[in-house]
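Final report, closing paragraph on structural work. Over the funding period we assembled a curated collection of sequence-structure pairs, and we close with a single example.
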Amino acid sequence: MPAFKTVSIEHDALNPRIARLLLNRPQRLNAINEDMPGEIRAAVDWANDDAQVHVIVVEGAGKGFCGGYDLTDYAEQQQEHPCQQESQPWDPMLDYRHMKRFTEDFMSLWRSPKPTIAKVHGAAVAGGSDIALCCDLLVMAEDARIGYMPTRVWGCPTTAMWTFRLGPMRAKQVMFTGNVLSGQTAADWGLATAAVPLAQLEATTRELAERIAGVPSGHLAMHKMVVNQVLQNMGLEQTQAMATLFDGITRHNPEGLWFRRHAQTEGFKSAVEWRDSGRPIPEGDEARQLIREMEQGRRGPGL
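Its predicted structure, as stored:
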C-alpha cells in the first residue's frame, strides 16, 4: 500500500473490491494542509490502478470527517503565502493557480471512474465539505454537520458543488448564511444519500459499497461518465474557475483583510466566533479603518 503523510488507503479488510481512503490528521480534525489535496489525488490514482477495487469509501480519522483548511496558520501567520499576499500587490493568477490545483486534486474523487462514497461523521465543513461533495454519494450520521461557514467572510467554495448538488435556491441559502446542515437535514434536502444514527453509519456505508462493488467496473465507469457529462454540460468547469478566482478575492478585499488582521491580533478563534455569530462583518470603509487601527497596534500587538 502507498505511504502518505496525511491520508492512507488500503483494501477493505472484508472485501478487497472496496478501497478505504482515510483522511488521517485526527490531531487537527483532519484539517487540510499543503500535502493533503495531492495525496488524496495520489490515493485515488492508486485505487483506480488496482483492478480489484470497484468503489472507494472516503472517511475521516478521529472525531470527524474534515474541519476544513488548516487556517489557523494561514490566518495568524505574518509571512507571505501564495494565497495571502500583502507585502506586494496581490497576484490573482498566482493565487488562482495555487487554489485551482487543490480544486483539481479534490475533483479526482469526482472524475475517478470508480464510484466514491463519503462517509461523514462529526464535521465536514469549509474545505472539508468540498472533499465530501466531490464524492459521488454521501452517507452521513444524523448528527454530523456539513456547511461552508467562510462564505460569510474569507472564502468561496472553489469546487462550486453546492449548486450542482442542491439546486440554486438551497445553494443560495447555504451560501448567503454560512449555516451548517445536520446530516438529517442534508438527507431531507437531497444533499446526502442517507442519514443514519452514528452507530449505524459503518454498516449503512458498507451495505451501499458492497452493492456497488458487485457491478462490473466498466459498467460503473460508463454510468458515472454519463451523469458527470450532464454537469459538465451545465458549466461545472467554468463555474469552478469563477469560484476559485472569487475565493482569492474574498481573502484580499477589505473584508477579507479585516478578518486576517483580526485573527493576527486577537487570534483565529476570535475571528471565527465573530464570523459565525451573525454579527455584521465590517465592510468597505469601516473595514479599512479597523485594519488601519489594528496595523497601528491599537487593538493588539503591532504587525
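The first helix runs from residue 36 to 49. DSSP finds 14 helices and nine strands in the chain. We thank the funder for supporting this effort.
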